[in-house]
Design goal:
Blueprint (H helix, E strand, L loop, with lengths): L3 H14 L3 H9 L10 H14 L6 H14 L9 H13 L11 H19 L3 H14 L3
Helix pairs in contact: 1-2, 1-3, 1-7, 3-5, 3-6, 3-7, 4-5
Length: about 140
């Protein structure tokens, strides 16, 4: 059984993937960054997406190249994430050890980075709306209750 926090997080991600920016903003407002479960469901979805993108895993240089591409695609001023930070998130996602975010000291930044990366991964993978729903359902199953 999934917690309401996990459901809300997956609703936020679903709204983002559907380009429903009003829904994204409304649903994001319901999240509690101080909550003990904050970030876990998005972390699970990110892990699913990154393992689909790199099904055989990835070397450190492949991860660095991927992160450089992500950062290079962002508009000037939007790059609030360091390459090392994103590389660590990708590495953890590939290992299935995505931390909730509190371990980084700033769970909101971790959630934002994972939302950005998951959005990018889903677009790169060309997932249809049905496949996106399947990804969210798998993330829900992987999120501890």
């Amino acid at each position: 059984m999934t917690s309401s926090t996990a459901t809300t997080e997956l609703d936020v991600l679903g709204a983002l993937l559907a380009f429903d920016f009003i829904g994204f903003a409304q649903k994001s407002a319901a999240l509690d960054p101080a909550g003990p479960r904050y970030g876990k469901a998005v972390g699970a979805a990110f892990g699913v997406a990154v393992r689909r993108r790199f099904p055989q895993g990835a070397t450190p240089s492949e991860i660095s190249g991927y992160v450089a591409g992500v950062l290079g695609s962002l508009e000037a001023g939007a790059q609030e994430f360091t390459p090392e930070f994103l590389e660590r998130l990708v590495t953890e996602g590939l290992r299935g050890t995505a931390a909730s975010g509190a371990e980084y000291g700033d769970p909101e930044t971790v959630l934002q980075a994972r939302l950005l990366l998951t959005f990018r991964l889903v677009r790169e993978l060309g997932l249809s709306p049905e496949q996106q729903r399947e990804l969210l359902a798998e993330a829900e199953r992987r999120t501890p209750a």
